[in-house]
Amino acid sequence: MVTMQTINLLAEGKATYTDGGVFAEFAWIIVVLPFIAALGITFFGKSLPLKGAEIALGSVFFIFLYSCILFYLNISKGVASEFFVNVGSIGSFQIEFGWVVDGLSIMMYFVVGTVSLLVFIYAINYMEGEIRYTFFFTSLTLFAGSMLVLVSAPTLLQLLIGWELVGVCSYLLIGHYWEEKENSSAAMKAFITNKIADVGLMIGIIILALSTGTLRISEILYQATHDYEAITAVAYIAGILIFIGAMGKSAQFPLHVWLPDAMAGPTPVSALMHAATMVTAGVYLLGRLFPFYQGIAHEALDVVLIFGVITLFSAGLIAIVQDDLKKVLAYSTVSQLGYMVTAMGSGAYTAGLFHLWTHAFFKALLFLAAGSVIHAVHTNNMSEMGGLRKEMPKTFITFIIGTVALAGLPPLAGFFSKDEILASLNHEGHNLFFMIAVAGAFITAFYMTRAVLLTFYGEYRGHGHPHESDSMMTNPLVALAFLAVVAGWVNIPGIYTGFTNWVTTRKNGIIEYHPESFDYFALSSGLFAGIIGIGLAYYIYQIISRPEDGDSKIKFQPVWRVLENKYYLDDFYFKYIIDPVKLTLSKGIDRFNTEILDRVINSFGSAASYLGGIIYNKFDQGGIDKALNLTSSGTDALGGRVKLIQTGKTQQYLMYFLVGVIVISVLVLLVL
Amino acid sequence: MSVQPFLIAGAGLFSMGIYGILVRRNAVMVLLSIELILNAVNINFVVFNAMLSDTLLSGQIFSIFVITIAAAEVGIGLAIVLMLFRNRQTANINEFDLMKW
Amino acid sequence: MTSIGNMLSEGLGISLVVFLPLLGALIILFIPKTQDFLIKIVTLASATVTFLLSLVVAFQFDYSKAHTFQLGNKLTWIESINSNYEIGIDGISLPLLLLSTFISVLAIIYSFEHLPEPVNAKGMMSLILILETGMNGTFVALDLILFFVFFELVLLPMYFMIGIWGDRTKRSVAGFKNEVETRLYASIKFFVFTLFGSAFMLLGFLGLYFRGSKTFSIPELIELGSSGAFTGTFATLVFAVLFLGFAVKVPMWPLHTWLPDAHTAAPTVGSVLLAAILLKLGSYGFVRIALPILPEQAKAWAPAIAILSAIGIIYGSLACLAQTDLKRLIAFSSVGHMGFVMLGISSLTSIGINAAMIGMVAHGIITGLLFFISGSMAHTYHTRDMGRLGGNMKLLPKTGALLGFTAMASLGLPGLAGFWGEFMALLGAYNPLSGLNITVFRTSMVAGAIGTVLTAGYLLWMLQRVNLGEPDEEWVNQDLHDADNYELAAWIPLVILTVLIGIFPKIIFGSTNDAVINLVTKAFGG
After folding, report:
1. Scanning every residue of chain A, which has its alpha carbon at the shortest distance from the alpha carbon of B92?
2. pLDDT digits (tens, 9 = 90+) for C66-99
3. Partner of C456 for a Cys bridge, out of A195, B68, C461, C494, CB 3.0 to 4.6 A?
């Protein structure tokens, strides 16, 4: 049943790859395991000492180990193979699931495995005593499995399945505290926004599948890079549609609105799904289909680039005005996803994935550190924090590391990946976009410094006495901080470019520009922007005012108001799309149904019964029956008259008789 | 010998009989009138038999039949009248209207 | 044993599948009304044996020849009009037959402890069994008259179920001066509406009989049809009346208005069977009769069907957004989902019709389950008003969890059964049979895709209103019963089936694919 496709690596000109052997062949285990674990937690979780968390942790730990093995194999030799399982044929289409074990997917396995493991450990403590603890781990484990379904997909169909499954897990987890309507609404918003984007993805997949006759990604990419006519004809439209899908999941403007609201979920969820893994699925998708975009859909890539740039800039600006610490990070995530998409759009495959890779670690770190803060002060609002650097030193230091990594200062991870994106923009000659991206780097540094100052500096403005979280929570922070420092060292131009090799180890070759050495113009612009951003924020919040004063110095109305209202995008959606559909249109349709359609049907009924009345009364009763009755009553009346001669008087009868005889006799005589 | 006087006598007898049937109220009288009619017929039978010189004497035989039937008829008729009289205390034929609608 | 096996494969098997329930109903007639338990046991036994027999049939079925009619028989029935007792199954009817026998068993298990008021086990159980005979018979009949008889047979039990055990509240109805009792209005509307359609359908059957070679045999008519025997105005009219008959049953927009009322009024088991099986009779009719016998006309009508389906999808979803009545919402969702089935059929491609087949089965399972759950909730809360519900997850955790799962399945979540029908229908509609108007179909496809968003919208909104949030005060101190064992026994198999078909659609496609390809090749040459 399982068919294995060992890639003819020599044909692709890279003889160093292997098929991954038994580890690749059994990679399905890590995809299936979380689902079994989730079932196990559902049925047995509540009776276990850690209420099911141990099953979740065990499965994730196994995933982590397995992904490490694959990762090692990929580093040492390079692995590229794919496996298919036929689950049905429909017409001439083969519906196949399977798993891909190649550089790109292994990178994702590793990210998912590592971040999941750390987040799971963190969550055991963070979620302690919270409602639906067991169910939380069920959903989280399900999410890990769904994410692996997505990244291991060798067919577009499986990708779509994983794609929507992670959406459901996201729905479940954002709405974890569903007693509050706000939270369940946020969950709904996330799901439906994604569903809207998924329509694009779905149609895109349909178009690709029908023009190529297959759902296998590698075959579609093969056709895309070998001048097949059918796929070339639809490349642009399919490319755009698939990107719409990516826009939803990876929160690109204008479909990013769900991600900030998704912060309603518990913080570990935000760290795992809404920073490190799930939201990068869109970037992964663009990466997976990159040969297609590069080969025949480069016009679509231009659109990708534009949306990426808009996103990175506009979301960054909103992050400046947020008071909610998690929302700062959420908009920051949107902005960083914009960077990744920008990279993809500019044709820099490796740079985009590299930023995905580094971002996964330092953003997960930031979220978990923020969670640690929130856990201690019981509020999300920075206006009620402050001065926490003394009480929570470990959290503070790791948060600083994450901030510096995000702001892009060397030698931390974000520096290398952001630099590579800038270098690529510069190389491709997108001068305007390059400048916007640099400005974005400035904004990033600014809002992150602001967040650090408002949270950890100044005087404590909240209630109670916050203290440092315990080691179950801080140890994952330390681990992630380590990764946030070193993750960038795997792709240093001119020194070590292992990452480039990892993610280009795949069946369909990637042809792109790889800088041989640093692009010093881009590097210095980015670095300069970052330093200016940090400095300016420090100047505003620490020198000319105190963190206690909040944003008083830079509250420029009405710009501030526009940003606080998120460019009025949500209002626009509600006023012009959601409310009209939900309130006006649906009510109209319903009224049409009951008032018009039903009325028509009912009036047929009434008309029929009215007509029946007429027919019954006028024709049946008044016509046919009347005639019948008249016949009988007429006979009756006639009889009444005629009977009068029956007097019973014998002599009278005789009289008639005689008269009759006489009459007859006379007649006979006359006639004869 | 001419038959005419006999026929006239028969016709007269017959007419009287009819008159009696139609007019008399007493049931006995009606029965008597019926006898008159039957005898008028008898006269005619006998006369025509003689006139036609029938060797088989059919007319005379028939008149005997008629006499017999008349006897029977009167017997039954009188019995009915008697019974009616007993029940109703009258022989007035107008009061016997059982056959009325 | 072999002789029994032979007998079963020579028509006895599916005949028993059809008539065993009827036999059960007859036996029940002779059991006194007071012997409740005995009645239930007999019902369950006959339905279970029927289901097991249908499994035997499924095992005897030769899947490598799924496109031929198998395991059937042909006996003389009404000689004077050359109508025969001709039965048989192919890959298209087999999944539906199994679905029908399976859901019937579950409906009976559910009814063990959950008979609607006025409680009358004898009446309810015998009606379910008679209904099953009608449903199973429709799926195996290969003679138009026989098909018609079974097709009509389902009406009566359902009419009585709605009319006797239905919702007794009064409501005002547009176009009527006085308020009417919901169950009476609904049952009459259901009956008259469907009868209206099927009367025309019979006319179409007669037309085929006289224009064809005086035969009612479906296989023979398919041969005639694919060789081009039926053309011109005559065929157009015949297709039109067949369309009317089947479209009412599906139901397609704008002939759907009986559905929300019937579902809302019907007792739980009634709406489950109605949604799960009865609606499929219409779409099955299209695939079994209308398309293969009148291929040219099907081509001519396909764009119209596609447009109506697309309208149905959007319309049904939007109407759902306006509902406050839980069961009515689910009923309207059926309009949308059956729109996908019909969209698949209208594409006239093997992909589209396969999509319709799996869509039918998935809709039967999922919407059946939704009606089970919502009916049970309506019974527990004594209201279906979503404005008053809320916090169901807190009050009835098991029911709530299952409702959440089923809603996810219903919105076409990949990995669950509902996905295949929707996705493949859109796939089919993107590239319809060559010669059909591509613009119409692609527009319909986009409309369908938008419909999936709206579907997600109303189902999630329903979940938010019913399942999530804090429970209303009026429920807090009430003694509400969560799903009991009978309910779980009826529901869990459907959940498992939903997941199984979702991850391994070969369960359905393995049976339907060859048959559908054969149908499409024969009728449309491609």
Report:
1. A649
2. 888 888 888 888 888 888 899 989 899 999 999 9
3. A195
Q: With a threshold of 0.90, does the pTM exceed it?
A: no
Residue pair C498/C369 in contact by the 8 Å Cβ criterion: yes
> Band of the pLDDT at A7, cuts 50, 70, 90?
very low
Q: Between these two residues, A626 and A547, which has the higher pLDDT value?
A: A626
Residue with tokens 């990159």: A290
**Which residue segments constitute the domains of chain B, with CATH numbers given?**
4-95 (1.10.287.3510)
Interchain pair A192, C175: CB under 8 A? no
Q: What is the ipTM of this complex?
A: 0.89
Please tell me the distance in Å from C236's CA to the nearest CA on chain A: 25
- Cβ of B100 within 8 Å of Cβ of A648? The answer is yes
Cβ pair A87:C506 closer than 8 A: yes
CA closest to C443 among chain A residues: A203
Alpha carbon C94 to chain centroid distance? 14
Q: Which two tokens stand for residue C446?
A: 């986009």
Residue C300 domain-assigned? yes
C253 lies in a domain? Answer: yes
pLDDT above 90 (res C362)? yes
- Provide the domain count of chain C: 1
The length of chain B in residues reads 101
**The two structure tokens encoding residue B62:** 């028939």
What tokens appear for C99 in the block? 């679905």
What six digits make up the tokens of C288? Answer: 């079994």
pLDDT of residue A12: 45
Mean of pLDDT over chain C: 88
Asked if A654's CB is within 8 angstroms of B22's CB, the reply is: yes
User: Are the C-beta atoms of C91 and C17 separated by less than 8 Å?
Assistant: no
Q: Does residue C173 lie within any of the structural domains?
A: no
Q: Which domain holds residue C129?
A: 2-165+179-520
Cβ–Cβ contact C469 with A under 8 A = yes
Instruction: Flag whether C172 is in a domain.
Output: no
Do A and C touch, 3+ Cβ pairs within 8 Å? The answer is yes
Other C-beta atoms closer than 10 Å to the C-beta of C513 total 26
C152 or A7, greater pLDDT: C152
The alpha-helical segments, DSSP class H, found in C61-92 are none
For residue A64, pLDDT over 80 is answered with yes
- For chain B, say whether A663 makes contact (Cβ under 8 Å): no
* Cα distance between residue A265 and residue A277, in whole Å: 15
